[in-house]
């Protein structure tokens, strides 16, 4: 590898990041006196979910610059929807954001349909813009695709609808409450009073 290129590998980056997030979540829950096995499981799931999304969308990453890198591969930036859509990728991108509503609810207490969809859109847009920026500035190897933005947003919506339907059941709501990080501090403070 020459000095005008840099590779970011997937596993050597993602595994330490996931373990670090596990340790940080354990420390934070313990400091706030909210540490239970279920809440820790929720925090760990949310952390590994974020790591998986990062891995699926950004890594491995090959970056290059200087004269030897050549011209940016602008064909990797797809701005017209549906014309070059690959059905398998579209479906996988929907699946990737299906858990988003559950994570947002259990970690941040975000429940509104519009907020879940907006966050799904914003997260996806941030990923696609970052991929396009890396492709242009550093000859990255990722694809920035408007179809991914559409499918990620659709996945957030479908995940929200499925999660809302599951919450109609009392047993699910009761179990969910014990796993939820959001609102844990309020419940803990009420118990102290």
How are the SSEs placed, and which strands pair?
Layout: E1 5-8, H1 11-31, H2 37-58, E2 61-64, E3 77-78, H3 87-97, H4 100-108, H5 113-138, E4 144-145, H6 146-166, H7 170-179, H8 184-192
Main beta sheet strand tally, sense and closure: 2 strands, antiparallel
Structural class determined from secondary elements: mainly alpha
Number of helices in the DSSP assignment: 8
Q: Give the spatial strand order of the biggest sheet.
A: 1-2
Q: What letter string, H or E per element, gives the SSE order?
A: EHHEEHHHEHHH
Give me the Rg, rounded.
20 Å
Whole-number average pLDDT?
Answer: 92
Number of beta-strand segments: 4
Low-confidence stretches: 188-193
Summed up, what is this model?
This protein has 193 residues and is mainly alpha-helical. The protein contains eight helices and four strands; from the N terminus they run βααββαααβααα.
Folded structure, characterized:
- The protein has 193 residues and is mostly helical.
- The chain has one domain.
- Strands 1-2 form a two-stranded antiparallel ribbon. The chain has a two-stranded parallel sheet with strand order 3-4.
- It has helices spanning 11-31, 37-58, 87-97, 100-108, 113-138, 146-166, 170-179, 184-192; strands at 5-8, 61-64, 77-78, 144-145.
- Residues 188-193 have low confidence and may be disordered.
Question: What are the salient characteristics of this protein?
Answer:
193 residues, mainly alpha, two-stranded antiparallel ribbon, two-stranded parallel ribbon, 8 helices, 4 strands, 67% helix, disordered C terminus
């Amino acid at each position: 590898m020459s000095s005008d290129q840099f590779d970011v590998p997937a596993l050597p980056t993602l595994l330490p990041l996931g373990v670090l997030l596990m340790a940080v979540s354990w420390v934070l829950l313990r400091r706030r006196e909210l540490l239970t096995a279920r809440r820790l499981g929720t925090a760990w799931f949310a952390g590994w979910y974020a790591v998986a999304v990062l891995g699926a969308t950004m890594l491995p990453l090959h970056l290059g610059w200087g004269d030897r890198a050549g011209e940016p591969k602008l064909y990797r930036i797809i701005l017209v929807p549906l014309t070059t859509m690959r059905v398998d990728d579209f479906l996988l991108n929907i699946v990737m954001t299906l858990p988003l509503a559950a994570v947002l609810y259990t970690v941040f207490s975000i429940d509104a349909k519009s907020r879940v969809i907006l966050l799904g859109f914003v997260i996806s847009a941030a990923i696609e813009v970052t991929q396009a920026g890396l492709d242009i500035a550093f000859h990255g190897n990722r694809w920035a695709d408007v179809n991914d933005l559409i499918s990620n947003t659709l996945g957030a919506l479908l995940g929200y609808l499925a999660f809302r339907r599951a919450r109609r059941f009392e047993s699910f709501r009761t179990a969910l409450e014990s796993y939820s990080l959001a609102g844990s501090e309020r419940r803990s403070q009420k118990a102290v009073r």
